[in-house]
Amino acid sequence: MSELPSSKDCYKIRQTCCEMLADRGYILKNDAFASFQELSVQPFFEFEQKYASQPTNWVLYGEHLTRVSKNTSDKTPESIYLQCIPDLKSQTLDDVLNQMREKLYDRIIIVSFTGLPKKPLQEKLDIQSNASKVIAEVFSHDRLIFNITKHFLVPKHTLLTETEKLQILKTYKVSEDQLPVIEKTDPVARYLGLDQRNVVMITRISENSGKYINFRICK
């Protein structure tokens, strides 16, 4: 196992994860803080006091503001769980697989400190995801030290609700197939957790032409 990042880097990673879940439309649950936004700006010294000996030993829970769970019969909000795995291998993945089997959450995000999973591990995740209908995402920790959406070259991407998407299609008199595509593997698409047929509004600001807006569909 490679050496873990510093407490400062782990703090930045948690900050990005909080921003990412907030941008996806989740609200923070089971925490002393009121929101992901509030947790994201927690002073570093407080984070270090709590996690100095184990800076990866934190988790995040959230519920979606508008989406409902596909794994319950009532209208329970879609749930998400995010955890760090310092050494991603078969044994350390078992806990995640058990959570998926028991359908404790609708979506699970793993922050891996040993890179993306090798093919056998990814296949195990995919098989369990298909069986349980629980979405599993894996991010390499070094991709989360900085929030890609804050880069000055990245325009603002906003995930539309299904109602907003239908309104856009109606307003512009187009079908889904006529929209430009954003690949599911695109870094911003991964940040937003885009699923197939999700539509994002992309807003670019130009000194010459002002605000320019277009829409892309995830495929």
TrEMBL record:
GO cellular component annotations of the record: RNA polymerase I complex; RNA polymerase II, core complex; RNA polymerase III complex
Keyword Transcription applies: yes
Chief location of this protein within or outside the cell: nucleus
GO MF term (any one): DNA binding
Domain RNA polymerase subunit H/Rpb5 C-terminal span(s) in chain numbering: 146-218
Superkingdom to which the source organism belongs: Eukaryota
Keywords: Transcription
Any GO BP annotation: transcription elongation by RNA polymerase I
Location(s) in or outside the cell: Nucleus
Family per similarity comment: Belongs to the archaeal Rpo5/eukaryotic RPB5 RNA polymerase subunit family.
The protein's name in its UniProt record: RNA polymerase II subunit Rpb5a
Organism the protein comes from: Spironucleus salmonicida
